[in-house]
Amino acid sequence: MDGTLSDEQRMLREMVERLAAERHGLDVRRTAILHEQGFHRPFWEELGQLGILGATLPEGCGGSGADPAAAMMVMSAFGKNLVIAPYVSTVICAAALLARVGTTAQQERYLPAVIGGTSVIAFACDVANDAAHINALQASAWPTAGGFEIEAHKTAVVGGIWSDHVIVIAKIEAEGGAIGAFILPVDAPGLGMRHARTIDGGSASTIHLHKAFVPDSARIGGRHDLREAIERICDEATAMLCADAAGSMDALLRATVEYARTRKQFGKPIGSFQALQHRMVDMLLACEQASSITQRAVSTLDGDPAERRSAVSAAKALVGKAGRMVAQAAVQIHGGIGITDELDVSHHFRRIEMINLQYGTVDQHLQRYAELLDAQGSSSHVR
C-alpha cells in the first residue's frame, strides 16, 4: 500500500505496526485468546492515549479530522500483526455515526471515552452480517411514552463481550419504516447477550432485545431517517476489513518467501524450485491487486454514493478470493507446520477466513456489484 500514500500516512502505518509488534505479539495474542476473550485491553487503551482511535473523527468531536486513508493504515497494520480489536465496530461504525448525526449531548457523553480508549461500543446492524440491502432490516422500534420499545435479534455482533454500550439499528414502523439508531448500555433491561469465540480467536455475540425500553435521548440523529448514513458506514466498515485482509496477506507473503529461502529439500532451498517460485509470484500479484483495489475503494468513501458502493463491493469480492488463495498457498508451501498454532501462518489463515464472512461474502458482493452495474446501465439508457 505504498503507491499513493503521503508521508504522514506512511508514518502512521509505521507507528501502528511498530506499536503492534512491540505490544501485541503472537504470545500476547495467544494469552488474550485464552484469558481475555481475545481482546488485549491495555493495547486498546494505549491506542487511545496516542490519539490513534480518534484520528479519523472530526476535530470538533475531539478527533484529528484525518481522511479514511488513515483508518486504512491502522487496519492494514492490525492485519499484518494479527491484532484483535473492535476498531471497525467502535470507531468506524459507532463513533462515526455519533460524530455525524448524534446530538451534541450524545457526542460529549460517549465520544471522549471512545477516543481515549476507555470505552467500547458494539454496532448491531443486520446489514453488517451480509450484503443484504438495509431495507431487509428485521429489528423494529415502536414509540411509547418517553421513548421507544425495541424488538430485535442480532447475530454475529463483533466484540459484544468487550462493550459497555451497543448501538442497535432498527426500523421505526410508526415513521413509515424509517431507519433509526439507538444506543443502550449492555445491561439495559430487556437486552440479553450470548457470546461465542470466532474462528480467528475473537468474539461475536448474539443480542436479543424484547420490549427493551430506550428513552428519546438515546435515539441517535433525532427523527431523521438514517438509511443513507448507515449504508455509508457499512461500506466504510467493509473497505476497512479489506485493508485488514490486505495487511494479513502481505504478512503471509513475507513469511512464505522467508521460509522458502531457509527450508531445504534435496540439498537446496525450496525457494529455488521453479514451481514454488511461480506460486509465490501468484501470491505477490494477488497481494498487489488486493492492496490497489482496497486503496481505490477507500478513496471513494467520501465521494459519490453510487461509485462508493460499486468500488467497495468490487474490493470485497476480489480481496475475498485473493486472500483465500494467498492463505492456502502459504499453508501449502509451509507444509504441515503451516496449520499449527506455533506459526502465525495459521492465525492469518483463520483471520482471512473470518473477514470473508463479515459484511458480505464474495458471492454476495458479486451479486451486489452486478445489480449496481445493471442499475447504472438502465439509468444511462434512460438518459
Nutshell version of this structure?
53% of the residues lie in helices and 16% in strands. With 383 residues, the chain is α+β, with helices and mostly antiparallel strands. It folds into three domains: 7-119, Orthogonal Bundle (Butyryl-Coa Dehydrogenase, subunit A, domain 1), CATH 1.10.540.10; 122-225, Butyryl-CoA Dehydrogenase, subunit A, domain 2 (Beta Barrel), CATH 2.40.110; 227-378, Butyryl-CoA Dehydrogenase, subunit A, domain 3 (Up-down Bundle), CATH 1.20.140.
Count of individual helical segments? 11
Q: So what's the overall shape?
A: globular
CATH homology group of the largest domain: Butyryl-CoA Dehydrogenase, subunit A, domain 3
Q: How many extended strands?
A: 10
Distance between the termini: 38 Å
Beta-strand portion reads 15-25%
Q: Estimate the helix proportion, in percent.
A: 40-55%
Number of individual domains = 3
Describe it.
By secondary structure, the chain is α+β, with helices and mostly antiparallel strands. It has three domains: 7-119, Butyryl-Coa Dehydrogenase, subunit A, domain 1 (Orthogonal Bundle); 122-225, Beta Barrel (Butyryl-CoA Dehydrogenase, subunit A, domain 2); 227-378, Butyryl-CoA Dehydrogenase, subunit A, domain 3, CATH 1.20.140.10. It has helices at 7-23, 26-35, 41-49, 68-80, 87-101, 104-116, 227-262, 274-299, 305-334, 344-357, 362-382, and strands at residues 121-124, 140-144, 147-158, 165-172, 178-185, 191-197, 203-215, 219-220, 264-265, 268-269. Strand 2 and strand 3 form a beta hairpin. Helix 8 runs antiparallel to helix 9 (305-334) and helix 9 runs antiparallel to helix 10 (344-357). The two termini are 38 Å apart.
